[in-house]
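lol forgot to send this yesterday, sorry. struct tokens for the thing we talked abt
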């Protein structure tokens, strides 16, 4: 049996715009999904026969990264599904990693590519942000240009993304989960439709791309005030792309008095928001009182990890 775990993520800046080839900045968080792979008589997931309809990411991961004899995959998750915290990426990355490790060793670049292809297939359209963050961990910058600290490049059709390591300073974030399950695919499709028909939406996407670059500089300078302002602006721009939700706005507003800034994170339409603060407990209380579920998270954690220590990590 081989076991791998992979972290969830929060997108600090750039969700949705990154699908159009703009930059994004994402951080790995200390909520993980663990997947184990072992030989079996039939393909199964958590002891039940695998069904493509129910296990969309796992069955697509099998098509992309396995093709061998039947296996059972056991998964356990600390990440609420549909919360905007990258549960689908973490399940995909940990499964692809465990399948690869079962065959001899894990190669982060290959895992990131295969996992992106899985998400793109299941969601219909995706960027490699979540899957690369879950693979590499720490922080990543996605950019149309190649920058310093380059990790790998992912191409798909006409689109391509350069993935870079981003050092993460000590920052305190609190997640506020609305409890509203939102599917990424339809939200991504909605933004595409809007961008095809509205020049205002195209301008918002362009501005998000600039916010990301300003955010990267603010991050390097550990400038929390600037980061907070940019988070507020990014939230407003995402609302203009119609991926907001009244419950997200409620939580964002509730955090304002005790945070540098706050925004929705991930696909939106429900899911989660994040706030940057020096006082995580005050923010957690504000989120709870406004009806959300607060999660105080550590950011910049390790990426894909072999849990049984028996296999090598290929370079
Ligand atoms: O729903 P999440 O948390 O996996 O975030 C999706 C982020 C998007 O930018 C909306 C889509 C993508 O593939 O980058």
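and heres what i got for the seq, position by position
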């Amino acid at each position: 049996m081989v076991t791998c775990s992979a972290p969830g993520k929060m997108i600090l800046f750039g969700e949705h715009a990154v699908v159009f080839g703009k930059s994004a900045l994402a951080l790995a968080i200390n909520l993980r999904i663990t997947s184990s792979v072992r030989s079996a008589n039939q393909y199964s997931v958590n002891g039940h026969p695998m069904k493509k309809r129910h296990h969309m990411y796992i069955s697509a991961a099998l098509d992309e990264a396995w093709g061998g004899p039947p296996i059972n995959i056991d998964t356990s998750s600390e990440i609420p599904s549909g919360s905007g915290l990258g549960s689908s990426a973490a399940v995909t990355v940990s499964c692809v990693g465990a399948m690869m490790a079962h065959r001899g060793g894990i190669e982060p670049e290959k895992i990131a590519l295969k996992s992106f292809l899985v998400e793109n297939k299941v969601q219909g359209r995706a960027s490699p942000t979540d899957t690369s963050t879950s693979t590499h961990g720490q922080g990543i910058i996605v950019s149309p240009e190649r920058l310093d600290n380059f990790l790998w490049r992912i191409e798909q059709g006409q689109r391509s993304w350069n993935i870079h390591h981003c050092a993460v300073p000590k920052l305190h974030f609190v997640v506020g989960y609305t409890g509203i399950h939102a599917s990424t695919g339809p939200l991504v499709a909605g933004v595409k439709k809007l961008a095809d028909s509205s020049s205002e939406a195209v301008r918002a996407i362009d501005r998000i791309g600039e916010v990301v670059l300003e955010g990267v500089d603010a991050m390097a300078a550990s400038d929390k005030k600037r980061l907070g302002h940019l988070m507020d602006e990014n939230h407003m721009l995402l609302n203009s792309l119609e991926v907001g939700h009244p419950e997200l706005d409620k939580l964002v507003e509730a955090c304002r008095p005790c945070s540098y800034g706050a925004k929705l994170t991930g696909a939106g339409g429900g899911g989660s928001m994040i706030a940057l603060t020096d006082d995580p407990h005050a923010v957690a209380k504000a989120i709870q009182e406004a009806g959300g579920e607060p999660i105080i998270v550590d950011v910049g954690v390790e990426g894909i990890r072999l849990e049984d220590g028996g296999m090598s990590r290929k370079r």
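The mean pLDDT is 94. anyway ping me if u want another try
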